[in-house]
Amino acid sequence: MNTDQRGIILNLHEIGALKFGTFQLKSGETSTFYIDLRVIVSYPKLLQQICSLVSVTIQKDIDEKIPTRLCGVPYTALPIATVVSINTNLPMLIRRKEAKLYGTKKLIDGEYSCGDDVIVIEDVISSGASILETVEDLEKSNLNVSRVIVLVDRQQGGLQRLSNKGLNITSIFTITQIVDILKREGKISEEKHKNVLDYIKNHQIKNDDSDMILRTKLAFQQRAELGETSKITQKILKLIIEKKTNLCVAADVESADQLLKIAEQVAPHICILKTHIDAVIGVTESTIKHLQQLAKQYNFLIMEDRKMADIGNTVKLQYKKLVKWADLVTVHSVSGGLMLKGILEEVQQTDLLDKRGVFIIAELSCEGNLISQQYTKDTVKIAEDYKDIVVGLVCQTNGVLPSPSLLQLTPGVNITSSGDSLGQKYQTPSDIILTKGADIAVVGRGIYEATNPAETAKYYKESLWNTYLERVSNQ
Ligand code: 5BU
Fold this sequence. Notes:
- It is elongated and about 80 Å long.
- Helix content is 43%, strand content 19%.
- Helix 2 (44-63) packs across helix 3 (77-88), helix 11 packs parallel to helix 12 (285-298) and helix 16 (429-435) packs parallel to helix 18.
- The strands form 3 sheets. It has an 8-stranded parallel beta barrel, surrounded by 6 helices.
- The protein has 2 domains: 3-208, Rossmann fold (3-Layer(aba) Sandwich), CATH 3.40.50.2020; 212-473, Alpha-Beta Barrel (TIM Barrel).
- By secondary structure, it is of the alpha/beta class.
């Protein structure tokens, strides 16, 4: 490492872009170091020095006329890519984080031609997921990623993973080089240096793509045993296995009496009872207590399908007042992940972590809904980031949810109807489990409007369970 590089590391430490101590990451995990290169935009000289390093690194490619474009991964790397573009005279492209829903629907802004070679620039790599998203969007736009340059590698296996996927990827600094220099220069203690190295060692990401393929192939038992499956998700999986049911009944009846009656009728056959308690007339505290007693007696969980969607603070307040009694709740992802942090805080404050969970709506079953593919994709990312509290997604398409440690819950099941006059679309149990990849299926009117709800629930339970067994034994 030359003196310029050493100087950059010391400067980054000086301006607080490299921090050591205890940090809560957005995933909920605690890290012993934190790299935040966003601040460098306020230090033009340092920004210029960093960009010169990147420019030098890609000079050979430029001399050989390989790349014709540069693209920064949004957002932190954008100013870096901009300065490198000016330094090297390589034209820049910008990848939109959200594809425009109107107008041209372009993923990539800037001018380019089909087959152009692009160098991608990123500030920090941990799992490599953000880089992959950018690479995918560039490839969808018929561009070729010739090289990826990362400023700092957190050395958790992300760089290796992308390299295994065939990407030509290198980093300018590794976190080990950084802490070695900072320790040598007396900027961090031996202990902090050791903590960083220990952290890297113990937080390696899996280096294969097993997560991407296994969810529908793995048995519930195997999924419950995965290290990354949260306690609350394990609890649901265990219950499903014990009762041999992946049926969730939507008890959308009008009165509290009807609700308790249907709950009693279906109780032996369900893993989850789903309520819209705000739509039921006459619900009191005693109705809720009665439901909770049934849940305990018959071993099922209660999910209040409230579809919360406000800013974090409001959701936290609403959750506390209206929903906390239920084991599970549904939320929309429209206001972003911090809303989940609100729920998580509320749950942690009352020692209910491991007993409360959230399903996020990633897709809707009704005709004409406004959810786009990008919205669904971003929702999956939020679910992955908040695995402590998120147990899964409510979605309609197989492949949306790769992770075997999360559950796919899918509504819109009915064997006697194909839909209703208000846009609902129905599938059969076999479609839902095999084609749509559901782990848990939601049946509402198909059961509570049947002449014999208990018998009908038993029928759906067996049909869904047998299809699930077929799914996992066919692999
Ligand atoms: P149904 O009677 O089987 O149509 O009831 C389906 C239930 O699932 C009902 O409570 C809806 O609010 C819920 N639902 C849905 O139907 N479609 C969706 O995409 C989502 C929830 Br999200």
